[in-house]
Amino acid sequence: FVDVRSGDPTIRVELRYAGPNNFLGHSLYPVGTRALARPEVASALAVAQSILRRYQYGLKIWDAYRPAAVQAKLWQASRNTHYVANPEFGVGSLHSLGIAVDATLVDSRNRDVRMPTDFDQFTPAAMEPYMGSSFEMGGRARLLKYAMHKAGFAGLRSEWWHFTIAD
Fold first, then answer.
1. Please, what are the averages of pLDDT over each run of 10 residues along the chain (167 residues)?
2. Residue 166's pLDDT is what?
3. Contact at 8 Å (CB) between 7 and 46?
4. N or C terminus of the chain with fewer C-beta within 10 Å?
5. Residues 153, 32: contact at Cβ < 8 Å?
6. What is the 3-state secondary structure (H, E, C) of 131-158?
7. Mode of pairing for the β-strands spanning 36-37 and 2-3
8. CA atoms within 13 A on the CB side of 20
9. What is each CA distance from 44 to 93, 127, 144, in whole angstroms?
10. How many CB atoms lie within 10 A of CB 40?
11. Quick one: pLDDT at residue 126?
């Protein structure tokens, strides 16, 4: 695995599971944890970042590689297969393989922008058909999806922020 910023150091990282700002309300990663992924993912994120910069936006990564033990804790807390993969079935979470990231947008000054929901909002508003309560939110969500798709990622219908490298 490599740091997701290895392809482009301007990509912002705010690992939500490294602090209390997640649906569990406490840290699941040790202090200093870096956002890691397979090299192909880091390269593709650099492509997405390049596309987004043309529109005066950039990427912020909320999660990348996720250890299986953390995935098990998330599953125990939610037990909702629409939003959290059960680690006992199939491959479990694609995050644990280093091929998925959770991402959002920041503006050209690296400030957060409003998106349809916050991270880990396990409600119908997180699902792809919903694009937020304003035209601007919907436009930003579509731009993120467009840039990630062009860079080789596929989205997840139930979480607008989740992307898996397609290859």
1. 98 96 93 96 98 98 95 86 76 90 97 93 78 80 96 93 93
2. 92
3. yes
4. C
5. no
6. CCCCHHHHHHHHHHHHHHHHCCEEEECC
7. antiparallel
8. 1
9. 20, 24, 13
10. 15
11. 82
